[in-house]
Amino acid sequence: MRMKPVVLPMMCLIAMLLAAMNRPVQAQDTAAGEASFQICKTCHGQQGEGQLALNAPALAGQFDWYLERQLQNFKAGIRGADAKDIYGSQMRPMSLTLADDAAVKNVVAYIKTLPAAKAKITLGGDANKGKALYTVCATCHGQHAEGMLPLNSPRLNNQHDWYLLRQIKNFKEGIRGKHPKDIYGAQMVPMAMILADEEAMKNVIAYINSLGK
Questions:
Q1: Is 43 flagged in the annotation as binding?
Q2: What does the entry list as the binding residues for heme c 1 (predicted)?
Q3: What is the mean pLDDT of residues 78-103?
């Protein structure tokens, strides 16, 4: 005998949907994240402030979703795989110390508790000239370089200038953003091409530095 399909009333479906949406999100284990961060701080600093001497960018103050994506990209070999990406390749074995997704989320949750510090200016550059160049960047990264989740764009305004310069060069030279699975990195490649030379890069970075809080 064939059973009739059960059709749930619309109100029941709505109730189930609302229950799923309101279900509490599992809290991340910041204590476990702090333990994992002991390795990270060797290069990135006690407070995730970054260190020029070790070519390690600032982590504190960056979006958690962006940090998670980059850690997963390093783990998967999507980022840091290019032979010319010397410093990126150093991150892959570090990312592999995070055993699973939960470990990634935990360490990022801990980083999120660290205070963001204003990065020191180490490069030259004309912020006034950089302002005009930044108009294109603002479309994704925001008027104040604050980053935007809907466009998957990280915060820039509290990052070290030397790190930003290196990453722009990496995008221009195809060292970063060329992996077929690096969807968002690939979007940066043509944007980096807009900056004609190192002077233009330094100018736009100088303007970004002026936006930092």
A1: yes
A2: 40, 43-44, 91
A3: 95
